[in-house]
Design a protein that fits this description.
Rossmann fold; 46% helix; 14% strand
């Protein structure tokens, strides 16, 4: 993986997310160059400097977009706002959950994102799905070139990703171009669900996943028997669990297996492997609504797939990067081996030959993303031609 900050994996990961999700290298370089010295201090110190640099870069793009709007150049304005929203999201995700400016910037990023989508006339619609006494928000992308009802894939976030971030991932356009609609959701513990709805993560993902399937089956443009699930990063736990207990899913896939996340937490306590975000332990306590580290570790005890995957009786794809420094590749093999009743199970380890060897292929997602999109399109009767 290209590490802009050679001694700081976590900060470099954020830069790579930006570069592989629609950011421009010149803009990313301008924001990162002043941070090189701060990055040497470690993951947590200096994140205020990171916040200010990335927010300033996004603010400048938003100002340029306003100039485009005043001249009637709305498409250009929309494109700039799309990148500005991405940079705001990157700035926000690096902060401690109780950082003063975090929530305000998150809300601003949502507004900027939707304005960018509107001005750029992008194939994207914000939706809300009733859940408990609140709702789960999502971004719905229609299948391209499909007459009548289309298949759909529900894309589930990881620990710290959001629907707006994954919308900018290549997987969204890859699936829609293959005749498969996409629904990116902020499930409990992520995005709007966590920040605005106060919905914390739960191990029983089928509870909220079933509500999403209810919503999709009620849509007149969706084929109710061709609904797939794709989990990214910690979604590598959420998606298999959802497919195992929600039989209306017709296929499933993971972009980064997360077979035994409780064990991963014990490894991280022993300082084995890399963390995805700064202020990691406070972040996971926030995600799960835990009162302290001991409480979180009790929550994490249920976050494994042992004894679950034999319930899956639909096609399932397990992918993983061979050099994943967050989640060891052994967990991909465990997930694959336990999919004993899947009529078509497949294990794909991305190597240096095709790229995408890091966590969820964030170092180079294009070839890995097209592989996953092709596989899901084949199972859901989309198109790969």
């Amino acid at each position: 993986m290209f590490q802009y900050f050679p001694t700081n994996y976590v900060w470099s990961l954020s830069a790579m997310i930006a570069l592989t999700h629609g950011g421009q290298i010149g803009e990313v370089d301008q924001m990162c160059a002043p941070l090189v010295d701060a990055a040497r201090a470690g993951n947590d110190p200096g994140t205020l400097a990171f916040f200010n640099a990335w927010k300033s870069g996004a603010d400048k793009l938003a100002e340029l977009a306003e100039e485009d709007k005043s001249g009637g150049r709305l498409l250009s304005a929309g494109e700039k706002l799309g990148r500005a929203a991405l940079y705001y999201i990157i700035a926000e995700r690096m902060q401690a959950h109780d950082f003063d400016g975090r929530l305000a910037l998150y809300k601003h990023s949502l507004d900027v994102f939707l304005e960018g989508v509107r001005l750029a006339r992008e194939n994207c619609e914000r939706i809300e799905i009733p859940y408990q006494d609140r709702h789960i928000s999502g971004l719905y992308v229609r299948a391209v070139g499909v007459q009548g009802r289309a298949p759909v894939v529900v894309v589930m976030n990881g620990l710290d990703s959001t629907k707006e971030m994954l919308y900018r991932s290549c997987i969204t356009s890859y699936l829609s171009r293959r005749g498969v609609a996409v629904l990116l959701v902020d499930q409990p513990g992520t995005g709007e669900a966590l920040r605005l709805q106060k919905l914390h993560a739960i191990p029983q993902t089928e509870i909220w996943a079933s509500k999403i399937v209810d919503y999709l089956q009620a849509r007149t443009d969706i084929d109710p028997v061709r609904i797939g699930a794709l989990g990214v990063s910690l979604g590598g736990y959420y998606a298999p669990r959802a497919v195992a207990f929600e039989p209306r899913f017709a296929a499933g896939a993971v972009w980064g297996a997360n077979h035994d996340w409780r064990e991963v937490q014990k490894r991280r306590l022993a300082r084995e492997g890399e963390n995805p975000v700064p202020h990691y332990w406070k972040h996971v306590e926030w995600v799960f609504g835990a009162s302290d580290l001991d409480d979180f570790m009790q929550c994490a005890e249920a976050m494994h797939l042992n004894g679950v995957l034999d319930r899956i009786k639909v096609p399932f794809l397990v992918t993983h990067g061979e050099n994943d420094r967050q989640i060891p590749v052994q967990y991909a093999h465990q997930t694959y081996e336990q999919l004993a009743n899947s009529p078509r199970r497949e294990l794909k380890i991305f190597t240096a030959r095709e790229g995408g060897v890091e966590h969820s292929s964030l170092d180079n997602p294009t070839n890995a993303g097209s592989y996953i999109a092709d596989w899901l399109a084949e199972q859901l009767h989309g198109t790969t031609a």
